Amino acid sequence: MLPFKALAWALEVPWGSGHLAADVTCWSPGAQGVAKGCADVVQKLTRMVGKNVKLYDMVLQFLRTLFLRTRNVHYCTLRAELLMSLHDLDVGEICSVDPCHKFTWCLDACIRERFVDSKRARELQGFLDGVKRGQEQVLGDLSMILCDPFAINTLSLSAVRHLQELVGQETLPRDSPDLLLLLRLLALGQGAWDMIDSQVFKEPKMEVGLVTRFLPTLMSFVVDDHAFNVDQKLPAEERAPVTYPSTLPESFTKFLQEQRMACEVGLYYVLHVAKQRNKNALLRLLPGLVETFGDLAFGDIFLHLLTGTLALLADEFAVEDFCSGLFDGFLLTAAPRKENVQRHALRLLLHLHHRVAPAKLQALQKALEPTGQSGEAVKELYSQLGERLEQLDQQKPSPAQAAESPALELPLPAVPAPAGL
């Protein structure tokens, strides 16, 4: 059996350098497929493992160890991708002995469809309930597979969709078996690191308040949206002077700060309203994300998804209130202490700077200026933004050119009317 150093050499990764962690970070939900570099890593591992069960077990142990050392959830993605790669090659020698194979296969189908329907939910529940006494260690691998950001993305968005359906059905979250299962899977995925680190293989208990208080609050937000939209569609003479709610319940923000499950679902609800181009709901929710459990709202995965989705709201960047709510009320609150937030804000401005009002753009440019301690990535992005703004200024007509009347606007000479016949 190869030692860890030999395995790292086979991956062409210097031992202890952390390069593998850098390679696999290109896995992120919302990307257009798996990046070539990551696919190459999976292919290398697949070729190296072949049909050797012992070598496969060793690779899994290697990934568990890296996950524990770095807390990098992309090693969880690599664990699932490797199994699915072997499944695609029909390597029965390994797939038949990995107790997570069918579960991962079913979950992979859900990820591809971006939704967990009732049929697949029952299948996943069957796999969980089928873990026998004495085989609880399987929960460790299942939790690692569920910790994959792609899986978290699919489960969270499915939970949000279920909440919307429950509003139409006038059903409470606690009465929906499918929703409760999604929460159970989310809890298992989020507890992966703790479970593997402690070697206590038990499903984490779900907080009662999550189901009885937090999720109904999210449903009330959905009702607020529906009520406001219906009112706006009424004829002007029948429309009441209704304003969109701008405050958040204190209990809601407290859940975001204290419970990871609530925070995860809440963040994906924010992504949902952004995809729906619901600027009112987005501006209402953003202040509640300034302080969240483990600063999840300022993590790369959420910010990557959010900034990508904000392109759908490009026209709103010309509005002062929207820019202030997004930048001043959210991103800039963490940019001075979190360089990754500064990077995401600069990338966002690089794409949408031409939409932002000049005065606001100048203020944002000053607020995002790198310091001496800033990394090269931030300095490069800031330099690119400066170049874009210079190009934008050069494209504007000079005051002298603007004062000149275009040729087509010169007054026409008077022409006498033709004499009558």
From TrEMBL:
The record's annotation in Pfam families points to: COBRA1
Q: Which InterPro entries does its entry note?
A: COBRA1
List every stretch annotated Disordered: 392-421
Q: Name one GO cellular component term.
A: NELF complex
Biased composition (Low complexity) is annotated at 397-421
**Keyword Protein biosynthesis tagged:** yes
Q: Which GO terms describe its biological process?
A: negative regulation of transcription elongation by RNA polymerase II
Q: What is this protein called?
A: Negative elongation factor B isoform X2
What keywords are annotated for this sequence in UniProt? Elongation factor, Protein biosynthesis
A GO molecular function term, named singly, is:
translation elongation factor activity
Asked whether the keyword Ribosomal protein is assigned, the reply is no
